[in-house]
C-alpha cells in the first residue's frame, strides 16, 4: 500500500527544474555543519580522561547540545513560516564556529557545556530553514532533495570521527581549532544559498500562484494529529537507539574489546559512513513506492540486527552496526517528507518540530543511557536499547493514500 501524505497539486508545466547548484551547496554546508558537531562525539574519550568525567557527564554534553537545538528549532521554524529570514543561515554557522573555537580551548567541563550550547544554537538555526530551501530547490522531487540534504549531514557526521582519529587524537584538544576553515567555507556556501532564497522570495511575491492550481487539501485535524503522533513515536525509536549506539560506540568498543582510542574512532567512522550511504536511499525510494513502506522497513527492519549486536565479536559488531546504520538512516527523509506533505503550508514548523524532536530524543537518550551505564555497564546499555527498533511496528498504523481520502 502506498502512503504518500497529501501535497500541493502543482501542474507539471509550472514546476521549476531542480536547482542543482543550490541543492549541492545546502548539502555541502550540511556536511560542514554536522562534521563540526560530530567532533563533540569524537572528543568524548579525550574529555572523559582529561576532565575525569563519568558516563552521565559525557551524556550531559550531548544533552546540552541537542536539547538546545531541540528547543529552538520548532520556534525558529514557526517564526520563519510567518517571516522568512534568508540570511539567518550564515548567522547560524557563525554560532557553530564560535562554539568550535571555545571547544578547542575549553579548560574545564563547564566550558565544554557552553561550547556545546553554542553549537546547538547554530544547529537550531540551520536545520529548519535549510530543509525548507532543499524542498524549494527540489523541482517537485521532494524525497530526493531531502535525501541529498541528509546525505550531506550524515557524511559530515561520519567524517568527524575519522578526522578526529587522524588529527585531534595525535595533536590534542586544541587542534579542533584547525577546523575553523571548514566553518568559514560553510558561511560562504550559506551566503550563496541565502542570496538565492532571497531572490526566490522576491520572484514568488511578484508572480502569485493561481489559487485553484495550488489549493491545499483539507484533512481533519484529528487525522493530522494522529499521523504526526505516530511519526514522532518512530522518531523516538530511531533517535533514542542511535543516541546510545553512536554516543557510546567508541567507549563500548574500548571497554568490551580493549581496542585503542584511534582504532575505536575508525570503527565509528565505518558505522557513520554506512549511515550516510543509507541516507540517499529513503527519499528517492519513497518518491517511487510511497513513504510508508520505506518507514516500515527502515526501522522495524533493523530489529533482528540490533538484537544480535550486543552478543557479537568485534568483527561482527562492525558488520552488524554498518547494516543497522545503512538501513535505519533511510527512515528520516521519508518521515520528514511524509510530515511536510501532510502540512505543506507549514514547512518550517514541521521541519523544526521533527529536527528538534530528533535532537531532543538523541540528547535525552544520551543522558539517560549515560546514567544507566554508570549504574550497570555500557555493555548492558547496548543490550537494553537493542529492543527499541521493535517500536517500528507502529508504522502499520500510518494511513494509506486511500484512507486519507485521496
TrEMBL record:
SUPFAM superfamilies, alphabetically?
MFS general substrate transporter (SSF103473)
Listed A to Z, the keywords are: Membrane, Transmembrane, Transmembrane helix
- Residues forming the Major facilitator superfamily (MFS) profile domain are 22-404
Report any Pfam family annotated for this entry. Answer: MFS_1
Report the transmembrane regions from the record. 109-127, 148-169, 175-193, 224-244, 264-282, 294-312, 318-338, 350-373, 379-398
Q: Which InterPro entries match?
A: MFS, MFS_dom, MFS_trans_sf
Recorded GO CC terms? plasma membrane
Q: Which GO terms describe its molecular function?
A: transmembrane transporter activity
* PANTHER family assigned to the protein according to its UniProt record, in alphabetical order: FOSMIDOMYCIN RESISTANCE PROTEIN
Protein name in the entry: Fosmidomycin resistance protein
Organism whose genome encodes this protein: Stenotrophomonas terrae
Amino acid at each position: 500500500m502506498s502512503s504518500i501524505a497529501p501535497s500541493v497539486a502543482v501542474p507539471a508545466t509550472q514546476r521549476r527544474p531542480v536547482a542543482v547548484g543550490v541543492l549541492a551547496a545546502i548539502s555541502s554546508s550540511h556536511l560542514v555543519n554536522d562534521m563540526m558537531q560530530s567532533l563533540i562525539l569524537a572528543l568524548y574519550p579525550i574529555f572523559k580522561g582529561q576532565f575525569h568525567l563519568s558516563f552521565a557527564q559525557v551524556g550531559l554534553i550531548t544533552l546540552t547540545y541537542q536539547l538546545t537545538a531541540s528547543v529552538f528549532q520548532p520556534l525558529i521554524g514557526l517564526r520563519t513560516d510567518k517571516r522568512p529570514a534568508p540570511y539567518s543561515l550564515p548567522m547560524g554557522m557563525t554560532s557553530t564556529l564560535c562554539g568550535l573555537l571555545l571547544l578547542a580551548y575549553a579548560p574545564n567541563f563547564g566550558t565544554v557545556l557552553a561550547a556545546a550550547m553554542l553549537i546547538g544554537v547554530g544547529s537550531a538555526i540551520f536545520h529548519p530553514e535549510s530543509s525548507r530551501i532543499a524542498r524549494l530547490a527540489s523541482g517537485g522531487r521532494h524525497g530526493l532533495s531531502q535525501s541529498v540534504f541528509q546525505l550531506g549531514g550524515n557524511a559530515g557526521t561520519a567524517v568527524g570521527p575519522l578526522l578526529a582519529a587522524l588529527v585531534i587524537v595525535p595533536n590534542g584538544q586544541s587542534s579542533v581549532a584547525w577546523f575553523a576553515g571548514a566553518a568559514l567555507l560553510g558561511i560562504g556556501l550559506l551566503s550563496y544559498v541565502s542570496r538565492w532564497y532571497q531572490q526566490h522570495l522576491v520572484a514568488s511575491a511578484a508572480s502569485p500562484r493561481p489559487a485553484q492550481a495550488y489549493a491545499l487539501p483539507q484533512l481533519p485535524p484529528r487525522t493530522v494529529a494522529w499521523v504526526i503522533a505516530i511519526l514522532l513515536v518512530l522518531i523516538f525509536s530511531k533517535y533514542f537507539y542511535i543516541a546510545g549506539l553512536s554516543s557510546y560506540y567508541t567507549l563500548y568498543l574500548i571497554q568490551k574489546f580493549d581496542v585503542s582510542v584511534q582504532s575505536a574512532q575508525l570503527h565509528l567512522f565505518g558505522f557513520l559512513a554506512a549511515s550516510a550511504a543509507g541516507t540517499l536511499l529513503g527519499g528517492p525510494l519513497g518518491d517511487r513506492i510511497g513513504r510508508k513502506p520505506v518507514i516500515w522497513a527502515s526501522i522495524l527492519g533493523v530489529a533482528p540486527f540490533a538484537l544480535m549486536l550486543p552478543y557479537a565479536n568485534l568483527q561482527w559488531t562492525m558488520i552488524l552496526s554498518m547494516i543497522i546504520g545503512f538501513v535505519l538512516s533511510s527512515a528520516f527523509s521519508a518521515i520528514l517528507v511524509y510530515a511536510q506533505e501532510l502540512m505543506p503550508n507549514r514547512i518550517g514548523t514541521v521541519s523544526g518540530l521533527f529536527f528538534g524532536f530528533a535532537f531532543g530524543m538523541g540528547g535525552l537518550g544520551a543522558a539517560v543511557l549515560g546514567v544507566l551505564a554508570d549504574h550497570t555497564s555500557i555493555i548492558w546499555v547496548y543490550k537494553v536499547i537493542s529492543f527499541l527498533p521493535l517500536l517500528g511496528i507502529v508504522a502499520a498504523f500510518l494511513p494509506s493514500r486511500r484512507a486519507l481520502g485521496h
